[in-house]
Design brief:
Chain B: GO terms for molecular function: transmembrane transporter activity. The complex is a heterodimer of chains A (416) and B (292). Chain A has 416 residues and is α/β, with parallel strands linked by helices. Chain A has twelve helices and 14 strands. In chain B, a hairpin with a 2-residue loop joins strand 1 and strand 2. In chain B, helix 2 crosses helix 9, helix 9 crosses helix 10 and helix 9 runs parallel beside helix 11. Chain B is globular and about 60 Å long. Classes of the chains: A alpha/beta (416), B mainly alpha (292).
């Protein structure tokens, strides 16, 4: 019979626990690069998490098939942050401390990004948030944060001039209470004032209100020319339906960012005639000529068809996924250029990415881009799209320079 | 002026939905003396069942209005039968113990809500059977909401006829006044209990299907309207059906009117304040008798 004294038991258990606690850190010589994904797989933005995860997986598979980065294979670890900042923080800690993640690609939920940013600095781990609230590349961020795709302000700046000149000068802004929507309201206010347009009213609406009509009925139809809307997907449909029921579509131009509708089918009367500032055409036929060779490769690796749908027929947030795709491409560039071996080389990695330029190619199928050194923010081209007969059509392509704005902060002054 | 009319109209429409909910709650309380905390979950279940029926019918029939009508009948039938079963299995064994009954219905609320969350995560959208808006007196208002108010009124009329003109109604009113005497004169009281509970939650399900096209359909959708319904039942007078309708109209019209001057969230708070004042003036409720 096996005998085991209490002392033996505690000794063995203690040693086991210690080994477990030290586990990930104990292996100093890297055998692989661990990519953590803080993914919103459930909760308010659950429609985005699985797609970003899939995009990350696709790029990792491609990199590994070609022999990894500096001959180290990539390994993906995914944690569900449930579209909740507190859970997001816990999952970030878990990814870094327990799973040994070397780099973390963040949620699209801006509140989670803002809550996670201080942790990235504390745990000295480079973090690529996918939410678009402008604040993340300002005071709320730090030198460990890289925004591999635009922020709200980038998109607003890209579209402001054309929309004021072509859609109208008197604006009413209708925005959800959520961070990314309030970010839009604030950025438009500043842009519209700078362009000499008039803000008739700003109407703030709680997240998922029981009824949209009492809010939409407050829009001053006689004085407004452009109705700007900022909501998440489901609220966007409900807002547009309410607006249509009140006949606003015929009397005003309705504009928004693609982020509000990028998982929605536009083939419904509520979308007809509305305008969007986007960062990539949903439909392959609308992609500009110089990107037409890359577009099929991008779509094929994510299983997206020419109309922007998955094999199951759901609309894929095709533009949004460039954020995660480009984050991995940037990780590769940073590692290769800085000779990164472990997190001890993070400062060299960060400096290698600051001010990085890229041109269109398999790693950056969205087009040419630039990562500004001061606020670690990516700038790239944008589009104006318009729904005609239920389909998004590109009206205008906007160069990346139009989206430039002066940096809110200079991270290069921060210590690493 | 247009805005005033608009908000009043919108309040008026919502009042009928809340009244429908409150009537179910009140009916159950009046006959079974049960405060059904799970009422909001049955509302949600009605909307979800309606969505499921519409999804299933999508390939079968192209007539969306017909499909919607089927959902409007099928979902409450399903929820009503479920209510009958739950009254029999869950509530019957703990009859006459008010505190345990409240805990049991709260448990039902959690089970139904989490069950739906598990089987059907995320949020569904139901298209209205009639789209667009109509202009009446220079006021444009969605057609479906007129339909919603009309159908709610129709169901409330049916309920009234059922309670006043049928044998079930007569028996139900007898049980409500004195269950023991009713039993003594040969009324099948256990059946009246079960059917009343089923009918009460079926009314919540009707409200659920009717509002599905204008609200997001998801597991937690019943909570806001449940609170409004409780307020309406208490202010209207516990057990009083007419009181519930009147209180629903006051609450929703007040919300609408206050929305003209303040944001809708503040308007809701002001409307609740008004209901509190009404209760101070008439603690037994608008049409309540002091026996309750």
């Amino acid at each position: 019979m096996l005998t085991c004294t209490r002392r033996d038991f505690f000794r063995t258990a203690g040693a086991g626990l210690l080994a477990f606690a030290l586990g990930p850190r104990a292996s100093a010589q890297p055998k692989e690069i661990v990519i953590g994904h803080q993914a919103p797989l459930t909760g308010a933005v659950a429609q985005f998490g699985p797609w970003h995860n899939r995009a990350i997986r696709a790029v990792i598979d491609r990199i590994n098939a070609a022999g990894g980065i500096s001959s180290l294979p990539l390994v993906l670890v995914t944690e569900d942050e449930a579209s909740n900042p507190e859970i997001g923080q816990d999952k970030f800690r878990k990814l870094v401390l327990q799973e040994g993640a070397d780099f973390v690609i963040g949620s699209v939920w801006s509140a989670t990004n803002l809550a996670t940013a201080p942790l990235a600095r504390e745990l000295k781990t480079v973090y690529f948030p996918q939410g678009i609230a402008t604040e993340i590349t300002g005071e709320a961020g730090n030198r460990y944060i890289f925004k591999s795709y635009h922020t709200v302000r980038g998109a607003v700046n890209a579209g402001a001039r054309w929309t004021v000149e072509n859609l109208g000068k008197r604006w009413t802004i209708v925005a959800s209470q959520l961070e990314f929507a309030q970010s839009q309201a604030a950025d438009w206010r500043a842009q519209l004032e700078a362009l000499g347009a008039e803000i008739v009213d700003v109407i703030t609406i709680p997240f998922r209100p029981a009824d949209f009509l009492p809010y939409v009925s407050r829009v001053n139809v006689d004085r407004t020319e452009v109705l700007y809307q900022a909501f998440t997907a489901l609220d966007t449909i409900r807002f547009l339906q309410a607006a249509r029921d009140l006949g606003l579509h015929e009397r005003l131009k309705i504009l928004g960012l693609i982020e509000g509708i990028d998982v929605l089918d536009t083939n419904s009367p509520a979308f007809e005639g509305t305008y969007y500032i986007t960062s990539y055409p949903r439909r392959a036929s609308q992609v500009p000529e110089e990107l037409q060779e890359l577009d099929p490769v991008y779509r094929r690796s994510l299983d997206i068809d020419e109309e922007g749908r998955s094999p199951q027929g759901t609309v894929v947030p095709i533009a949004d996924l460039f954020g995660s795709w480009q984050a991995l491409s940037l990780i590769r560039k940073g590692i290769e250029q800085s000779g990164w071996q472990s997190k001890a080389d993070n400062s060299a990695f960060i400096q290698a990415l600051e001010g990085r330029n890229w041109s269109a190619g398999l790693e950056f199928p969205q087009g040419d881009g630039f990562l500004r050194p001061e606020d670690h923010l990516a700038f790239h081209g944008h589009y104006i799209e318009h729904v005609e007969k239920g389909q998004l059509n590109v009206l205008l392509r906007i160069s990346r320079d139009a989206s430039l704005y002066s940096p809110l902060i200079d991270y290069t002054q921060q210590e690493l | 002026m247009e805005l005033v009319l608009f908000q009043l109209l919108n309040g008026f429409v919502w009042a009928w939905v809340v009244a429908l909910m409150a009537l179910g709650l009140n009916l159950v309380y009046g006959v079974l003396r049960i405060i059904n905390v799970a009422h909001g979950a049955f509302y949600m279940l009605g909307a979800v069942a309606g969505w499921v029926i519409l999804e299933q019918l999508q390939g079968v029939s192209d007539m969306y209005i017909l499909n919607f009508a089927l959902a409007l009948l099928g979902a409450p039938l399903f929820v009503g039968l479920l209510g009958l079963l739950l009254e029999w299995t869950v509530l019957r064994p703990i009859e006459g113990q008010p505190v345990i009954t409240i805990i049991a219905t709260f448990a039902l609320l959690l089970i139904l809500q989490q069950g739906v969350q598990l089987l059907l995560p995320g949020t569904q959208q139901v298209a209205p059977p009639v789209a667009g808006g109509v202009e009446i007196f220079r006021l444009r208002y969605p057609v479906y909401r007129w339909v919603l108010a009309g159908l709610s009124g129709l169901f409330i009329t049916f309920l009234w006829l059922l309670l006043q003109k049928t044998r079930f109604g007569l028996w139900s009113r007898a049980v409500r006044q004195d269950p023991e005497l009713a039993l003594a004169v040969g009324i099948p009281v256990p059946w009246i209990f079960g059917l009343t509970f089923g009918l009460g939650v079926a009314l919540a399900a009707v409200a659920g299907v009717l509002t599905a096209p204008i609200v997001p359909v998801e597991a937690s959708m019943g909570m806001d309207i449940l609170l409004d319904s409780f307020i309406v039942v208490i202010v209207g007078g516990l057990g009083s059906l007419q009181g519930a309708v009147i209180a629903a109209l006051i609450l929703q019209l007040a919300k609408g009117v206050f929305t003209i001057w303040t944001a809708p969230v503040a308007a809701h708070a002001l409307a609740l304040l008004l209901m509190g004042l009404l209760l101070l003036i008439r603690p037994q409720g608008l049409l309540g008798t002091d026996a309750d």
